[in-house]
Amino acid sequence: MADRQVTRPGVEKQLEQVIELLHRHELVENLVHRQESPRHELVETLVHRQHLGALQQLLDRVHSADIAYVLEALPLDQRLVVWDLVKAERDGEILLEVSDAVRETLIAHMDEGELVAATEQLDTDEIADLAPDLPREVILDVFKGLSTEEREQLRAAMSYPEEAVGALMDFAMIEVREDVTLEVVLRYLRRLDQLPDHTDQLFVVDRDEYLRGLLPVNRLLVSDPETLVGDVMIRDYSSFQPGQDARDAASAFERYDLVSAPVVDGEGCLVGRMTVNAVVDYIREAKDTETLAAGGLSEDEDLFASVWKSVRNRWAWLAINLVTAFIASRVIGVFEHSIAQLVALAALMPIIAGIGGNSGNQTTTMIVRALALGQINQDGARKLFLKEISVSALNGLIWGSVVGLFAFLIYHSWQLGLVMTGAMVLNLLLAAVMGVAIPLLMQKFGRDPAIGSSVMITAITDSGGFFIFLGLATLFLV
């Protein structure tokens, strides 16, 4: 959401104003409820009108994306108060802006009629975005109110998975013929109430809807009006197919600085377009998903969700962490005799495990990013593997020498220093191998490498670090 990023300082100020008005309303309402008088109901009505009226006036001036930000930052009871004050004609666009978790709470608060009215305000591609969260009865009612063309567009948009270009395309676009003059196109545009958002080019099609080229708006404005569209249109352009991976399209938008691009079927017929705002939203949502996955969260979580729902969202990776912690503890348990004879081992072994985990996570982050950008092939994977091994070996020697010197200075044992150095080198090599292998294997088996890779790396480097360090100490010190 570009609007949110640009206006964030203003949004935070608006959030403070909303919270202040809500607190005033709640404070006065509580005072009125404590007092019993013949005019109790009249006073309560006036209180409601005073503070809620001021809040409604504030909300009327706020952009829909900023209202979404405010709603996400409020506890459920206050959120619903604000939601009830939002004008009904803005419900649909705000539902599109809020996170999935918050949208669920708002939809649960609305009746079927309100949901139908909110959805009917949206374009077909926007309805498709909202459809998975709406009750089936609402979708059927909305479907009945659409024209035949809109129904076909909605069916098409809903038929594609979330990660496909077809799920991001919209149908609001302007088509022209190549055998007409630019003057004819200009007259046609002047008859329109407004241009579709992010219209930087018109789509040149033939009578069978085959895409012939693109007519940039800037060429339309500066060229001779008597020139034919076919003489100034662009014939070399980027296009996408509905089933194509949205990540590839997002990369192309970034690489070529696109504002909009055509979406064509397998035969070359124009079926829709992608715009930069949809791509930005997709990138933001993908980034949010990766961030949550890296923290072991299975889905977007409402900040003010119920305790039980939050527990269900977080338990899976916590359970995995518990299993890996048990494994690490058993590795330590194998060397209890060695630790008992040389207590310094207990103080030093977390250093080996911690540095190995950090090194492995750095490697994993680089590999996951490269996979997301499509920069790794079979030959490249081998070279990358050798490069990471070399980096880890050098880092191991450098930082292993540092911790070895530290151990020597503290415990006055050069043998312990050498063990620390050797353990550091070996654990960083293990971290490099796993940091490359785990994301590649997860992708090979159809799993998202961003989900859980860091947890697995940390578990392996912890257990492996303990085993390597305590094993070397047992062989050479005890």
Describe the 3D structure.
By secondary structure, the protein is mainly alpha-helical. It folds into three domains: 2-161, MgtE N-terminal domain-like (MgtE N-terminal fold); 175-294, Roll (CBS-domain); 307-476, SLC41 divalent cation transporters, integral membrane domain (Tetracycline Repressor, domain 2), CATH 1.10.357.20. Helix content is 68%, strand content 5%. It is built from 22 helices and five strands. The chain has helices at residues 2-6, 8-34, 40-60, 64-72, 76-85, 91-97, 100-108, 112-120, 124-130, 136-144, 148-158, 182-190, 217-222, 229-232, 246-256, 276-294, 307-334, 336-341, 344-372, 378-411, 414-444, 453-476, and strands at residues 175-176, 201-205, 211-216, 260-264, 270-275. A three-stranded mixed sheet has the order 1-2-3. Strands 4-5 form a two-stranded antiparallel ribbon. A hairpin with a 5-residue loop joins strand 2 (201-205) and strand 3 (211-216). Helix 4 crosses helix 6 and helix 21 (414-444) packs antiparallel against helix 22. It is globular, with a radius of gyration of 30 Å. The two termini are 60 Å apart.
Give a quick precis of the structure:
This protein has 478 residues and is mainly α. The protein has helices spanning 2-6, 8-34, 40-60, 64-72, 76-85, 91-97, 100-108, 112-120, 124-130, 136-144, 148-158, 182-190, 217-222, 229-232, 246-256, 276-294, 307-334, 336-341, 344-372, 378-411, 414-444, 453-476; strands spanning 175-176, 201-205, 211-216, 260-264, 270-275.
